[in-house]
Design goal:
Multidrug efflux transporter AcrB transmembrane fold, four-stranded antiparallel β-sheet, 62% helix
Length: 811
C-alpha cells in the first residue's frame, strides 16, 4: 500500500510541475470559470417560508398548495390592541382609523377583518341582512352597549376578533395568495440576492405564490402604519406567520453578513500569526472567497434558494475551506525558506500534502453529502452545495493556489529569523504537543479507559435529549415578535391552524343535513381537545355561516342557531347568504358545494407536540367520514411533517456519513483493522456532543441534527492527516512512539491551527440573535475541539497499542 501512496505522491509532484510550466494559461482559464459563476449570484433567491422546508413533491406540500389554490392563504398577520376598554367610542374611532389606514395602504392585501367590518348576520322581517358590525356607527352608550352584547355573543368573534374576556381585540389580515409582480432584487442585500418563496408556473398559466420579498414589503408597510397609530392609550402589537417569517429573513441576512465578517477577520488573524507574511494571509483567503462565490453561483444556476438552514453555508465554507490551503502553504514555505526554487517548493508541497488534502476533502464532502437524501429540503440543499463547495475548494487549492504561488512575487525568509520571531509561540506549542505525546504513548490504556468512561457518561446524557422544531422559540426571548405570538396564543387560544378538507366527490354534497350535523359535532368534540401543550381555541366550518343564517331567518331567535334538518332548506339558506352581498362562503367551500373546509385554531408550539393532536384529528375524521375524501393540511401539518422528515433524515445521514468515511479511511490507511479503529477518534466527539446536549437540556432541532454529520466530516480531516503522516513516519522509523512524536510535531501544528480556525468560525454563530444558531455554533465548535483532543490522545494511544508487533512492510 505504501508503494501506491508513493506513486500517487509522485504524480502530484509531476502535476505541480505541469501547473508551474503552464501557469498563465491555467490562471486565465480559472478566472473565466470564477467570473462565469460569480455572474449568476444576483439571481440567487431567499426563502424563509415553512413550505421551503419541504421538497416540491412532498405530499403534504402538494396538499397545502391545492388548499391555497382553493381557499387562499391560511397564514394571518394579526394586529392586536389591548386598551383599557374595547367597547369605548373613542377607542372604536381609533380602531376604525387604523383599519382604514391598513386597508388603503397595505400592499398585497387580500382581506382585512376587525370589529369594524366583522360579519353581522340578522333578519329583518323576511329579509336576510349581512352587513358590517359597525355599519351603523353607535351614537350613544346605549347603542354601543347593544353592539357590545351582540359582539360578545357571537361565537365566530370569540378567540378570533375578541378575547374571551373582551379586553383584547384584533385586526386579522390575509395577504394575496399569488405574487403581485415579478421577482426583483432584494434591496436589503443591495444586489447580492433577491428572494422568492415560490416558483412561477411554466407557461404563465398562473402566477407563483406570494414571494418572500413581497411578504417583507407587506410586513414593512404594516409596521410603518402601526407606528403611526401606536400610543400609550392605544397599545398595538403584531404577530402571525408572515411576521415571524419576515423576522427570520431579516435575522438571516444580518447573521450572514455578521458571520462572514467575523470568519474572515478570524481567519486573517490566525493566518498572519502562523505565516507572518501577507502572502500567507492573502492567498488562502482568496481561495476560500472564490470557493464561496463559485458555490453561490452554482446555487443560483440550479435555481436553489437560500433557506434558514443554508444560511450557515457562507461562513461554513469560509472556515472549512481554509484548512487545505494552510497545509499546502505550510509545506511550500518550509521548502521555499530552505532555498528550494519556487517550482520545486510547489512540487514538494503538493507531493507531501496532495493525497491527504484530496482524501480530507472527499471525506468532508462525503459526510456532508449524507444530507443530500434528507427529506427536509434545505438540509438536502446544504448537503449538495456544501459538498460542491468543498470540491470546488479542493480544485482551487490544488490547481489555482499553486498557480498563484507561481505567478505572485514571494520572498523567502531566513529560517533562523522565523524561529526567533515565533519562539515563544513555538515553545508553547512544543510543550503542549510533548505533553500530549507523553501521555498518549506512555499511558495508552489509561487514556482509552478514561475516554470510555466519558463516553458512557455522555451516552447516559444523550437519553435525555428531546426533539424540537419550534421557529417561534428560535427568536430571542425578548423579541417583540416572539412576545406578541406568545401573548396572543394565550389571549386568543392560538395563532396558527390545522386545516381539514372534506371532499364529498359530488356537486352540492354539502347540502346533506347529516353531514353538516357531523361537522358541527366534530367542532364541539375537537374544541374540547387538550393535552400538555396543545389545546384547541376554535374549530369552525361552513356550519357557522349556516347557523347564523338560520337564526337570522327565524326572527333572530337564539334557539334557531342550529343546522336545518331539511336538505332543501339548507340549499335555500346558503343561496340566500350567497346572494346577500357577502363573499364569506368562499372561505368555507368551493363553488360546487362539494368540498368543506374545517379550520382548527391552535397555539404555535413545538412541532413535536402536534404529533398526538394530529393523530387524534386524523383518526376522528377517517372514522367519522368514511365516504368523504379527507386531506389534513395547513401550517400545523407542514410543521409536523418537517420534524418527522428531519428525524428520518438524521438517522440516514449519520449512517451514510459513517459508512462513507470509514471506507475512505480504510482506503487511505490500507488496512481494514486500523481503518476501522481510526474511526474511534471521530465517533468519540459526536458521543460527547450528544451527552452535552442531554445534560445541558439543549433540544435536538434541525440545526443540532446537522452537527453530527458536519462535525464528523470535519473531524476526520485531522484524523486523516494524523494517520497519513503516522504511516509515513512508522515506515521510516519502525517505532510507533517515534512516529507519533514526528507526526504531532509536524502535522499536529497545522491540525491545531486549522481546528482553532474552524471552531472559532463556528463559535461566531453564538453571536446570533437566534437561539437555534447559538446552539448550533456552540455544539459544532465544541465538537471540533473534542475531535482535536481525540486526535491528540485517543488516536496516538490506539496506534501505539495496535503497532506493538514488529514492523512489517505493507508493500
Amino acid at each position: 500500500m505504501s508503494s501506491i501512496r508513493n506513486k500517487i505522491e509522485t504524480l502530484f509532484e509531476s502535476f505541480a510541475y505541469s501547473l508551474f510550466d503552464n501557469k498563465y494559461k491555467i490562471f486565465i482559464f480559472m478566472l473565466l470559470v470564477i467570473v462565469l459563476l460569480a455572474s449568476r449570484i444576483p439571481g440567487i433567491t431567499i426563502d424563509t417560508s415553512t413550505e421551503g422546508f419541504l421538497h416540491k413533491n412532498d405530499s403534504i406540500l402538494l396538499d397545502y398548495e391545492a388548499f391555497r389554490d382553493q381557499f387562499g392563504r391560511d397564514e394571518m398577520a394579526i394586529v392586536a390592541i389591548e386598551p383599557e376598554k374595547v367597547f369605548d367610542l373613542k377607542f372604536l374611532e381609533k380602531l376604525k382609523a387604523l383599519h382604514q389606514d391598513l386597508n388603503d395602504n397595505l400592499p398585497y392585501l387580500d382581506d382585512i377583518t376587525s370589529l369594524v367590518n366583522a360579519r353581522n348576520t340578522y333578519g329583518n322581517k323576511d329579509e336576510l341582512i349581512v352587513e358590517d358590525l359597525l355599519e351603523h356607527w353607535p351614537e350613544n352608550e346605549k347603542e354601543l352597549a347593544a353592539i357590545e352584547k351582540k359582539a360578545m355573543a357571537n361565537q365566530m368573534y370569540k378567540n378570533l376578533l375578541l378575547s374571551e374576556n373582551g379586553r383584547l381585540t384584533t385586526i386579522v389580515i390575509k395577504t394575496l395568495t399569488y405574487s403581485g409582480k415579478k421577482q426583483s432584487l432584494d434591496d436589503d442585500l443591495s444586489g447580492f440576492v433577491n428572494d422568492d418563496a415560490s416558483e412561477q408556473n411554466i407557461g404563465g398559466q398562473k402566477a407563483g405564490y406570494l414571494t418572500d420579498k413581497e411578504n417583507s414589503e407587506f410586513v414593512t408597510a404594516l409596521e410603518k402604519i402601526i407606528d403611526r397609530h401606536r400610543t400609550r392609550e392605544f397599545p398595538v402589537f403584531i404577530a402571525g406567520t408572515p411576521v415571524v417569517t419576515d423576522f427570520l429573513k431579516r435575522s438571516m441576512i444580518t447573521n450572514m453578513r455578521k458571520f462572514m465578517g467575523i470568519a474572515l477577520v478570524t481567519i486573517a488573524i490566525f493566518l498572519f500569526v502562523m505565516f507572518r507574511r501577507l502572502s500567507g494571509v492573502f492567498m488562502p483567503i482568496f481561495i476560500v472567497i472564490v470557493s464561496l462565490v463559485s458555490t453561490l453561483g452554482l446555487m443560483s444556476l440550479s435555481g436553489v434558494s437560500i433557506k434558514i438552514p443554508t444560511q450557515i453555508l457562507p461562513s461554513f465554507l469560509l472556515s472549512v475551506a481554509i484548512g487545505a490551503s494552510v497545509h499546502v502553504l505550510v509545506m511550500f514555505f518550509q521548502s521555499f525558506d530552505k532555498q528550494y526554487s519556487k517550482r520545486d517548493s510547489i512540487a514538494r508541497a503538493l507531493g507531501h500534502s496532495g493525497l491527504a488534502i484530496v482524501m480530507t476533502s472527499l471525506t468532508t464532502a462525503g459526510g456532508l453529502m449524507s444530507f443530500s437524501t434528507a427529506a427536509v429540503a434545505p438540509i438536502a440543499d446544504l448537503g449538495v452545495f456544501a459538498s460542491a463547495g468543498i470540491i470546488l475548494s479542493l480544485i482551487y487549492t490544488i490547481v489555482f493556489l499553486p498557480v498563484l504561488l507561481a505567478i505572485l512575487p514571494i520572498k523567502s525568509k531566513n529560517i533562523s529569523d522565523n524561529e526567533k520571531l515565533c519562539d515563544p509561540l513555538k515553545k508553547l506549542m512544543d510543550n503542549l504537543l510533548n505533553g500530549c505525546i507523553h501521555i498518549s504513548t506512555h499511558y495508552p490504556k489509561k487514556v482509552l479507559f478514561v475516554s470510555f468512561i466519558l463516553a458512557l457518561a455522555a451516552l447516559a446524557g444523550s437519553i435525555r435529549i428531546e426533539l424540537s422544531h419550534d421557529p417561534v422559540r428560535w427568536l430571542p426571548h425578548k423579541s417583540n415578535v416572539r412576545l406578541a405570538n406568545e401573548k396572543l396564543d394565550i389571549a386568543l387560544k392560538g395563532t396558527t391552524s390545522l386545516e381539514v378538507i372534506l371532499d364529498t366527490k359530488k356537486e352540492n354534497g354539502l347540502y346533506e343535513p347529516n353531514l353538516l350535523l357531523k361537522l358541527e359535532n366534530s367542532s364541539k368534540e375537537i374544541e374540547n381537545y387538550k393535552d400538555k401543550k396543545v389545546y384547541v381555541g376554535k374549530a369552525w366550518s361552513i356550519t357557522s355561516v349556516l347557523k347564523e343564517t338560520n337564526q337570522a331567518l327565524h326572527e333572530n331567535k337564539a334557539k334557531y342557531y342550529i343546522i336545518p334538518e331539511s336538505r332543501d332548506l339548507i340549499a335555500q339558506e346558503l343561496f340566500l347568504f350567497e346572494n346577500s352581498g357577502s363573499d364569506d362562503l368562499e372561505d368555507f367551500t368551493d363553488t360546487q358545494f362539494s368540498k368543506a373546509r374545517f379550520t382548527i385554531k391552535v397555539p404555535f408550539v413545538d412541532a413535536i407536540a402536534y404529533a398526538q393532536f394530529m393523530d387524534k384529528v386524523t383518526k376522528h375524521f377517517k372514522e367519522n367520514y368514511p365516504r368523504q375524501n379527507i386531506k389534513i393540511t395547513g401550517m400545523v401539518a407542514m410543521l409536523a411533517r418537517v420534524i418527522t422528515n428531519a428525524i428520518h433524515s438524521m438517522i440516514k445521514s449519520y449512517g451514510y456519513a459513517l459508512i462513507i468515511i470509514t471506507v475512505l479511511m480504510i482506503f487511505l490507511i490500507g488496512k481494514v483493522k486500523i481503518g476501522v479503529f481510526s474511526m474511534i477518534p471521530n465517533i468519540f466527539p459526536i458521543i460527547i456532543m450528544l451527552g452535552v446536549m442531554g445534560w445541558c437540556n439543549i433540544p435536538m432541532d434541525l440545526f443540532c441534527m446537522m452537527v453530527g454529520s458536519i462535525a464528523i466530516g470535519l473531524a476526520v480531516d485531522d484524523t486523516i492527516h494524523f494517520m497519513h503522516n503516522f504511516r509515513r513516519y512508522y515506515e521510516i522509523y519502525h517505532d510507533a512512539e517515534k512516529a507519533v512524536y514526528e507526526t504531532l510535531h509536524t502535522t499536529g501544528r497545522a491540525m491545531l491551527v486549522t481546528t482553532c480556525v474552524l471552531s472559532i468560525g463556528f463559535f461566531t454563530f453564538m453571536f446570533s440573535e437566534m437561539n437555534n444558531l447559538i446552539n448550533f455554533g456552540f455544539l459544532t465548535g465544541f465538537t471540533l475541539l473534542m475531535a482535536l483532543l481525540a486526535d491528540y490522545f485517543i488516536a496516538p494511544s490506539l496506534m501505539v497499542l495496535l503497532n506493538k508487533k514488529p514492523y512489517q512492510d505493507s508493500k
